[in-house]
Amino acid sequence: MGGAVSTSFLLGYSGQVGAQEGDGSIHITQQVEPAQDYDPVVLNDAYSARIANHIYDGLYEFGPELEIEPKVAVGEPEVEEDGMRYIVEIEDGIEFHNGDPLTAEDVLHSFTAPVEEETDNAPTFDMIDIEASDTIDEHTVQFDLLEPYGPFPTMTLATNIVNMDLRLEEEDVDPAERSYNVDDPVGSGPYQYVDHAEGEFFDMVRWDDYWDEPLPNVEEVRWVATEDDAARTAQIRAGDTDFITGIPPADYELLDGEDGVEVYNTPSISYFYIAFNCNDGPTQEPEVRNAIDHTFSASAFIDDIIGELGENAVAPMGPSVLEEWGFPADEYAEMENEYDPEQAAEMMEGHVPDGWEPELIAPPDDIRIALMERVAARLGEMTQFGVDINPQVRSLSWGEFLDRYTTGDADDYAVYTLGWTGHNDPDAYYWALFHEENEGVTQGHYYDNSEFHQTIRDARETFDEDERFDLYDQATRMLLEDKVHIPAYSIHNSIAALPHVEDLEVHPHSSIKPRLVSDHHNVDV
Fold this sequence. Notes:
The radius of gyration is 23 Å and the shape is globular. It starts with 7 loop residues before the first helix and ends with a strand. The chain has three domains: 19-37 and 189-268 and 492-525, D-Maltodextrin-Binding Protein, domain 2 (3-Layer(aba) Sandwich), CATH 3.40.190; 57-172, Alpha-Beta Complex (Dipeptide-binding Protein, domain 1); 270-491, Dipeptide-binding Protein, Domain 3 (Dipeptide-binding Protein, domain 3), CATH 3.10.105. A hairpin with a 3-residue loop joins β8 (191-197) and β9 (201-206). The chain has helices spanning 8-11, 46-55, 104-116, 122-125, 152-156, 164-167, 179-182, 229-238, 252-256, 286-295, 298-306, 319-325, 329-333, 341-348, 366-380, 398-404, 427-434, 450-461, 465-482; strands spanning 25-30, 60-62, 68-70, 78-80, 85-89, 134-137, 140-144, 191-197, 201-206, 220-225, 243-245, 262-266, 270-276, 310-312, 359-362, 392-395, 415-421, 485-491, 493-497, 517-518, 521-522. By secondary structure, the chain is of the alpha+beta class. The protein has a seven-stranded mixed sheet, with helices on both faces. It has 19 helices and 21 strands. Helix content is 30%, strand content 18%.
């Protein structure tokens, strides 16, 4: 059986939470509607992950500075076979919300199922040797790797643990359609699923039998989404919600100066970008991609639209990762083409058809829609320079966008914009966003460059940090030269909250914002 509980006491506070200081409940308003996937094997968006991270526990989890901390695991992994084998002991006595014990079988399944079921998360685990990996006993799991993978202990091991038996009750059903994903997620985390209505709310309640400490202070949580920036700002100002995530850039100064509103703003590891269809249509040609980069200024867009809530991205990784590794950010920034529409027109000559109507697609996010509109406006102005372009901007639902951006078909898109929340390692960005193995899965540009693909493979397979640095530097320059992506921006993780929300932590990882409880903080109202 699943883990849902009675909803009667939770539903009574709908729309009232923000005004109920001290009643043990909290109302959270996100800026984007989740994709409605709550099974960690399936989910692949930050907004669903923020919810799921309270329902599930990770084998390891990220601390406030992105350091790895054991959760379900007991201490650090034992490393054997020159880094090709990791043995992890797990805590005894952990139970899922439905009373099932959490065992090594559940841990192993959480890591192998994405590959076996070919979900969007498969690239995160495709280095694991599924046949050789096994459970040693009920509380010990062994991971064998197919190939050397330097970041395995610091990235891959931070994975949420699912209930294998419940997931496989509907083994013949598409994983995305299983009730475990869409109707009744059951984990071992500090909060238990209650109820949800797509496009309306997601309710969860503190699990009073939680195995770890501390027990959350907040008893009941309702998650909603308000994608309209003005409406979200109005809600926090009126006290209709306890806090909003994703402060609208245009309203930052207003909220920062508002009595009765607390603003939190911290750099993140997010990376937002413009990507080109390198598989079909005029954007297959590097000349066209470079020309488009000459038609607008990504840096100016950031200054105009995002302001203090973000910063320019100059390479395909979060700026904090760039800084941590010491990559030459100034040199990468110089590879952004200057605004020069006349040169763009010359470069497009003979490469784009007269009256070209490129499809520019964006998910339901105001900033990314504005970015595509900025690109479209500049392309439309090319008629002044003798190039007739009529770009079409499409703002799609998450479901529509995810179905379309990986087809490689020019009728579906010439340009798309997305974001990625990696980790403190370049591989977290480069493998999923660029490697050819992930064409049609987590990347839709289909960049064809064998030297590049081998370079990032070599970078992930070595344990030598200096060698990895050199390889990622080479790969970055290839991408910026060929304009596979135009790095756009990194959004800071920001929250605006009512004053009675105490001990709120804004984590640098977008999928962990907010985290209501950990061993170093515990949100209270």
